[in-house]
């Protein structure tokens, strides 16, 4: 049986062809993720293991002619999805990034890319807990930018049906809740320059059924295990002001949501209006830009266009 890995060479060739249209395009490989961070702690544990990891990253970078490495360790010092973790992950994560930075800079010199060096980036959890288990005030010096995963504030494991990527808190009904703004400020307070911070946005929504009808289900307890997710394309085609669902706007949170009173189902998500507020926020706070997860959730490209247009407006 063929593995999806068998397509790596063709995929990277196709990606690199995009540079014919956009010479400024940078292509990075992201290592890790929620379900693939099992042995990061082992890889970061010793000087020898860190060097092995860094060299393997360089080998991959050279093989596929890409522009850098992104680490998505979820999470240092925490179990995440049942991962190996240690208290020393806090220091070892910084050391791993330093080792990678050294290897990437050396390769940049060898390849004549001193004016366009290879990139090193990471994805970070949008919580104080993540920052407490890392040394971002030290680690940030080795990084070109930092992608904050400001989504999944409420997930399928959450008993409360709340926004999962709200820009600000809904103070009148859930004043203690998380928000993208809160996560950004926590990162800045941890010693990261705002220009290195990239705001993450979701191209998908999350849902709960059997929700209490107060506030059209928003921030209400659920009494069922019926929870799910849907990409923006599906939300647009099947749910937004369709099939018994009505779109509502949370002015405090700058976020939309859908409510069906018959099934007591709520969807929380981002749309063009909420992304307009987020792009204005990115520029007002002097952040490095936006990232999204993930492209296949919105082949219609409404959200991608909203990000591009918002970030490129003069105001």
What is the 3D form? globular
Which fold name fills CATH's third level, the topology? TIM Barrel
Q: Extract low-pLDDT stretches.
A: none
Note the run of SSEs as H and E: HEHHEHEHHEEHHEEEEHEEEHEH
CATH class: Alpha Beta
Which class do the helix and strand fractions yield?
alpha/beta
Largest β-sheet summary:
6 strands, parallel
Radius of gyration: 21 Å
Strand order of the largest sheet: 1-2-3-4-6-13
Describe this structure in words.
The chain has 315 residues and is an alpha/beta fold. It has one domain (4-201, 271-312): Glycosidases (TIM Barrel). It contains eleven helices and 13 strands. It has a six-stranded parallel β-sheet with strand order 1-2-3-4-6-13. Helix 10 runs parallel beside helix 11 (302-312).
Summarize the structure.
The chain is an alpha/beta fold and 315 residues long. The protein is built from 11 helices and 13 strands. The longest helix is centred in the N-terminal third of the chain and has 22 residues.
Characteristics:
TIM Barrel; five-stranded antiparallel β-sheet; 11 helices; 13 strands; 20% strand; globular
List the helices and strands and how they pair.
Layout: H1 8-17, E1 28-32, H2 40-43, H3 47-64, E2 68-72, H4 89-110, E3 119-125, H5 128-132, H6 136-139, E4 145-149, E5 160-161, H7 171-174, H8 180-189, E6 197-202, E7 204-208, E8 220-221, E9 227-231, H9 232-238, E10 246-250, E11 255-260, E12 265-268, H10 272-285, E13 289-293, H11 302-312
Parallel strand pairs: 1-2, 2-3, 3-4, 4-6, 6-13
Antiparallel strand pairs: 5-8, 7-9, 7-12, 10-11, 11-12
